[in-house]
Specification:
Strand order of the largest sheet: 5-6-7-8-10-12-13-14
Helix content: 40-55%
Number of strands: 14
CATH architecture of the largest domain: Alpha-Beta Barrel
Distance between the termini: 45 Å
CATH class of the largest domain: Alpha Beta
Number of domains: 2
Strand content: 5-15%
Structural class: alpha/beta
Shape: globular
CATH topology of the largest domain: TIM Barrel
Radius of gyration: 24 Å
Length: 440
Amino acid sequence: MSEFFKNIPQIKFEGKDSKNPWAFKYYNPELTIMGKKMSEHLPFAMAWWHNLGANGVDMFGSGTADKSFGQTPGTMEHAKAKVDAGIEFMKKLGIKYYCWHDVDLVPEDPNDINVTNKRLDEISDYILEKTKGTDIKCLWGTANMFGNPRFMNGAGSTNSADVYCFAAAQVKKALEITVKLGGRGYVFWGGREGYETLLNTDVKLEQENIANLMHMAVDYGRSIGFKGDFYIEPKPKEPMSHQYDFDAATAIGFLRQYGLDKDFKMNIEANHASLANHTFQHELCISRINGMLGSVDANQGNPILGWDTDNFPWNVYDATLAMYEVLKAGGLTGGFNFDSKNRRPSNTFEDMFHAYIMGMDTFALGLIKAAEIIEDGRIDGFIKEKYSSYESGIGKKIRDKQTTLEELAARAAEMKKPSDPGSGREEYLEGVVNNILFRG
């Protein structure tokens, strides 16, 4: 196997005072935090599509990065070279998982899905051969049902029964490859499951068809031995004007409406949260309190731009509050996939490594500080005190569902006016977070 990243050493932990660009400052996989190793809290994954495929092309210009890895793109030789490069990349960073779409792994044949499926069989055999004896595994797989022109009106939501069959065929094959590679999860991202205008859309039919496709996927996945979670990855818009999986709350409601909530959880992406005008923490919290926090796409958006920029995460505030929710949930069934891409001018192999080092350090520091917030107790203690009126008396009766509207109204009439609900002390609590983040 050729070495693709010859000038880049094994990346090791050196501590926060290190200035070595090829070292972790905060990600120490052996460090124990709240009873688990950091590597267990943070099962990082490489995104096949961005890291091995994205070359910096955008709507205004051609690619700036060479991701050919010595082979001609669009060939199976190139597909295998990406496997070799990806494994070397993960080994040098100590990353144990990867995520993929079907057409990330192999070039899609434009005329025959059977040819594409044979290529998927070949490349998955190659991946198993090359990862044998390593600790590198598949985190999750998915089918790209948004890129091909046939999906211009959606996949599960398409108006064409023929296109629907192709969507089902891709899901079936992607599930088979996920099981073959030992994947822990399978993701549905509804890239074009939505609409541009209601003037030409039957929303009820489309949503019912999407749910039916998901039910068939669950049935087939379980029949071939898939024991992991299925995930929905919410996104409010882009490429469609309105997407049906707008945010975590919308997606959870959809799953419950159609009886899919026992098999599905959320795969939350930070940048998608911001596009929905939510914080990353909000989407994680809503997923957590509903028992549906499954996996995370670790990135961030650019706050001055209104589209999905997929920056590598560097905002420690966001990472800390995200890890606070993950710790409260007891961890993830999935992992932290870097659905992030280098900026267009950051076009070297070295830049790929710098981005992952920074992203892994960001979440490692976020984990450390989130654990300190929990162990410090001031935030949780304040929240507990804020709602203490529900721990006894009429409040406890409300929580235990042992009262009536008449009893509550009679109590209000007797009191004439309520007691002061108390200050929310937002600024004080934000100061507590600052204190914990920046103390030595």
